[in-house]
Amino acid sequence: MVDTSWTIHGREFVNCNCSYGCPCQFNALPTHGHCQAVAGMQVDQGHHGEAKLDGLKFVGIFRWPGAIHEGKGEAAVVIDERATQPQRDALLRILSGQDTEPGATVFNVFASTLEKLHEPLFASIDFSSDITARRGHLVVKGVTERHGEPILNPVTGGEHRVRIDMVSGFEYTLAEIGRGWTKTSHPIKFELSDSYAQFAEIHLCQSGIVR
């Protein structure tokens, strides 16, 4: 049952440990048999009930010992320190999969696969995602640093552009694909190098993607 309606419309930049194509996007097993990922998002317009979420940012750090759907995952969430208490509460409810129809959003699906969720962090988030240019960066001091850029043609050195069109997904409808580098140090520690990155417009509500 959904107690409160909400919507988030903004941009994301995600980097995981899979190869450029990320088999997970096609319901295949992850490249290396396990999954590590960092997702950053900025809400351009949004609300949860009466709480406006415009301009706020958040970060999710994830690790699964196998494929995501096999569970036993670990996650940490960083919320924009500028958020008021009602805004913090609202974002935490959304990101933990609450106030959402079962399986309707990436937040709800991921939450169902976690066995360990660290206490939320509230910090300054330096984030950008230029979707068309396939470039982005994310810095949360003492927590994570990363950047993303286009895939390069191995022969010409030119920028290679490829997209994933997700017809019936729960996160995005169209994602630009690039590559990224990430280092996380707290509370989950790992490093990613020259691996899958996606840049996408996000428009979600309690019932899933807003089309």
Task: Furnish the topology, listing elements before pairings.
Blueprint: E1 6-16, E2 35-48, E3 51-52, E4 57-64, E5 73-80, H1 85-95, H2 106-111, E6 114-117, E7 121-123, E8 126-130, E9 135-140, E10 144-149, E11 151-152, E12 159-160, E13 163-165, E14 174-184, E15 190-205, E16 208-209
Parallel strand pairs: 5-6, 5-7
Antiparallel strand pairs: 1-2, 1-15, 2-3, 2-4, 4-5, 8-9, 9-10, 10-14, 11-12, 13-14, 14-15, 15-16
What does this molecule look like?
The chain is mainly β. The protein is built from 2 helices and 16 strands. It has one domain: Acetoacetate decarboxylase-like, CATH 2.40.400. The chain is 8% helix and 49% strand. It is globular and about 55 Å long. The two termini are 22 Å apart.
Portion of residues in helices? under 10%
Biggest sheet layout: 14 strands, mixed
**Structural class from helices and strands?**
mainly beta
Oligomer: single chain
Elements, N to C (H/E): EEEEEHHEEEEEEEEEEE
How many DSSP H or I helices?
2
Gyration radius from CA atoms, angstroms: 16 Å
CATH class group: Mainly Beta
Determine the CATH topology: Acetoacetate decarboxylase-like
**Gap between N and C termini, in Å?**
22 Å
Short characterization:
With 211 residues, the protein is mainly β. It has helices at residues 85-95, 106-111; strands at 6-16, 35-48, 51-52, 57-64, 73-80, 114-117, 121-123, 126-130, 135-140, 144-149, 151-152, 159-160, 163-165, 174-184, 190-205, 208-209.
